[in-house]
Amino acid sequence: MKTATSTLSAAATGSGTAAEQRGTLLMTLGGVLLGSIGIFVTEAGQDPVTTVLFRCLFGGLALLLWGAASGRLGELRLSGRTLLAAVLAGVLMVSNWALFFAAIPLTSIGVSTVVFHLQPFWVLLLGAWLLREHLSSTRSLACGVALLGLALATGLFDQPAQQVLTAGYIKGLLLCLIGSLCYAGVPLIAKLAPGVSAFALAWWQCAVGVLLSAWWPLWHGLPPAGATWGWLIGLGSLHTCLAYVLLYAGMSRLPTSRIAVLQFIYPATAIVIDWLAYGHALGPLQFGGLMLLGGALWTVRRCA
């Protein structure tokens, strides 16, 4: 009996390890994929509203196809409070996307991505303020370290002031900060509808984005024929549908501590791609700030 029990225990451990390895691979692929979003936005060369429209359009269509193939279309039927929560979350998420896309040409892919990753800290602070959630001393300290890391990561202290403190760069940073605040509101609103799946929220975000921006081409025209459409289709199908499927499939197989570490792959990939594709390398203080921000983020999520 003891031998049989030991065998079953070992088999369960092996299965758990295999599941975690698969989850790690899926999250890594999803993070790398999301890290390439900046190059798709840059190469498409469209204004932020046009980029949001076609990301939502192609992303929503791809999610519908995936939902039909996986038998999950029924999750999209929402009403009352859950529908309201999904729509409000969609408005915030679409605003976040538009602000992110607008910030990239004003700063850089790497800096914009790093600043947008302040979102977990805004969630903590807003939760403590609006929902009266307890904010531990460890998390409070992590928020302070994150703000210091952010100040360094923006590059304001890495180069001569006249090269960085331009009106466009400061505007880009402000757009990033406002966008990260919008992003922080999404999980808070999602708490109002705990029964809504991540798939349903993602699809409704796309639906809301299409409804809010469908009028734009009537005044500004459609993107030109050619490669632009390939970048926009990729932005929707790859970064909105496939990345969602990979990340959430990976998260479901992993403990919270592992998820917290793997979520650094997204900004790290964005920084590497920005450097390889456009020559935007981080300076020493920027890199140090990124490490501080990453350490603070890991601490916050580890304590979740």
From TrEMBL:
A Pfam family of this chain: EamA
Record SUPFAM superfamilies: Multidrug resistance efflux transporter EmrE
Keyword annotations: Membrane, Transmembrane, Transmembrane helix
Protein name per the record: DMT family transporter
Keyword Transmembrane attributed: yes
Classification of source organism: Bacteria, Pseudomonadati, Pseudomonadota, Betaproteobacteria, Neisseriales
InterPro entries: EamA_dom, EmrE-like
EamA domain mapped to chain residues: 22-153, 171-298
Segments passing through the bilayer: 52-71, 83-103, 109-131, 138-157, 169-189, 196-216, 228-247, 259-278, 284-300
